[in-house]
Amino acid sequence: MSYQELYKQKLTTAEEAVKVIKSGDWVDYTWASSHPVALDKALAARQDELFDVKVRGGVSMWMPEICKAEDAGEHFSWHSWHCSGVDRKIMAKGMGYFSPMRYSELPRFYREHLDPVDVVMMQTTPMDEHGNFNFGLNCSHLGDMLSRAKCIIVEINENMPWVNGLTATEINIRDVAMVVEGDNPPIAQLPGGGEATDVDIAVANLVVPMIPDGACLQLGIGGMPNAIGAMIAQSDLKDLSVHTEMYVDAFVAMAEAGKITGRNKAIDKGRQVFAFAAGSKQLYDYINRNPEIMAAPVEYTNDVHVVSQIDNFISINNAIDMDLFGQVNAESAGTKHISGTGGQLDFAMGAYMSKGGKSFICMSSTVMGKDGVLKSRIVPTLTPGSIATDPRSCTHYIVTEYGAVNMKGLNTWQRAEAAISLAHPMFREELISQAEKMNIWRRSNKK
Fold it and tell me: Cα(57)–Cα(78) distance, rounded to whole angstroms?
């Protein structure tokens, strides 16, 4: 039977496709922009027939229909691998949960630790002449997830970019149970964080001069990494490479400015490598069938040993706060969950293992609380319940608008002194007082 004949045989409506889902099933919506749209709407319409349907997703870019009803939690529960603002809203509703992980381990979770997935529903590109549907913006963990699925339903979106891949970026019509032709909505875009602030620019001015020509870059999500990327695009740096978990708009700006050639990479020479991408339509248009772009499974992009093979690897991420011991929290405010570990720890370790590599954790020294009170991001100890995303033994460079310090090789009182030098001046005396109480301050320390 030809691919087109198989396609016609498996083509159905979203309403018919979701009838395969039963109460108690584990259903996977996959990742970010691959979350289904028409199938999600059809499943939500079946809400009153279903109970205890457990749905996995991650980095949600819009509110799933199954989570909108007032009593949705009586029928569905949402399990996020990494939280966006949408995931946090679902959790606040009482029907969402977070699954802690290092993102690089997620493919192995599906291979070894999770029960088989009952149903997968995901957006893909249209089928090509070889019978393949491309995953588009999200390679991530999808190959291993699909290998454990009992039933795979693809929802075609003609707007999904076709992205070249290392492996596990496509599925063939022979392995698909049903095909749904969706309504082709625009691919969800991720705001770039707005104009760079004075603090963003100050931090970028500290980081960019420490990046050498020929460096390989990894940027985390957020306004500050994007601001640094924009400054790199305007700098004199040359022959840069990309190997990152998440592909963001700053890389497009650098590429279009001629900064990225990839000619110095020891592996994947000439290729910009990533696990998933999210950003503007300009980004999506840029990576569509671009031979310089290569999607790869996250256990490859985030592998510490892979990263360490790339000389002058530069990792740039942000944080919520840091304590005087050098522990970095990038995922919660006390017990209030915000994001996840993601790849930050892997890249912090991998960059330091790279010859000439550097890991930068960047943040503003202060944040305005909801109560209108200015708070320090440099704190004596992490707030109870906050997560130590990067243990003190793994932090390298920490940067605020007040400076950049290298934590490697420092003892506890030297770390406290370095951390306090990054704090806003109005908080430094209190931080010194707290450091003295914790016996990590010496009389000879600077004040």
Answer: 7
Report yes or no on whether pTM surpasses 0.90: yes
Bridge partners (DSSP) listed for residue 403: 400
Known catalytic membership, residue 15: no
Region at 40 (left for phi over 0; alpha for psi -120 to 50; beta for the rest): alpha
CB 187 within 8 A of CB 284: yes
- Asked whether 163 and 288 are in contact (CB, 8 A), the reply is yes
- Do the strands 358-362 and 336-337 form a parallel or antiparallel pair, or are they unpaired? unpaired
3-state secondary structure the chain: CCHHHHHHHHEECHHHHHHHCCCCCEEECCCHHHCCCHHHHHHHHCHHHCCCEEEEECCCCCCCHHHCCCCHHHCEEEEECCCCHHHHHHHHCCCEEECCCCHHHHHHHHHHHCCCEEEEEEEECCCCCCCEEECCCECECHHHHHHCEEEEEEEECCCCCCCCECCCCEEEHHHCCEEEECCCCCCCCCCCCCCCCHHHHHHHHHHHHHCCCCCEEEECCCHHHHHHHHHHHCCCCCCEEEEEEEECHHHHHHHHCCCECCCCCCCCCCCEEEEEECCCHHHHHHHCCCCCEEECEHHHHCCHHHHHCCCCEEEEEECCEEECCCCEECCEECCEECCCCCCHHHHHHHHHHCCCCEEEEECCCEEECCCCCEEECEECCCCCCCCCCECCCCCCEEEECCEEEECCCCCHHHHHHHHHHCCCHHHHHHHHHHHHHCCCCCCCCCC
Which pLDDT tens digit goes with each residue over 149-176? 999 999 999 999 999 999 999 999 999 9
Q: What distance in Å separates the CA atoms of residue 85 and residue 59, rounded to the nearest whole number?
A: 8
CA distances from 175 to 117, 143, 441 (A): 15, 12, 62
The per-residue pLDDT for range 25-82, each reduced to its tens digit, is: 999 999 999 999 999 999 999 999 999 999 999 999 999 999 999 999 999 999 999 9
In this structure, the strands spanning 76-80 and 96-98 are parallel
Choose, from 155, 170, 245, 401, the residue flagged as catalytic: 245
How far CA 188 is from CA of 34, 133, 182, 427, in Å, comes to 10, 19, 15, 41
Other CB atoms within 10 Å distance of the CB of residue 113: 8
Handedness of CA 382, 384, 387, 388 (dihedral sign): positive
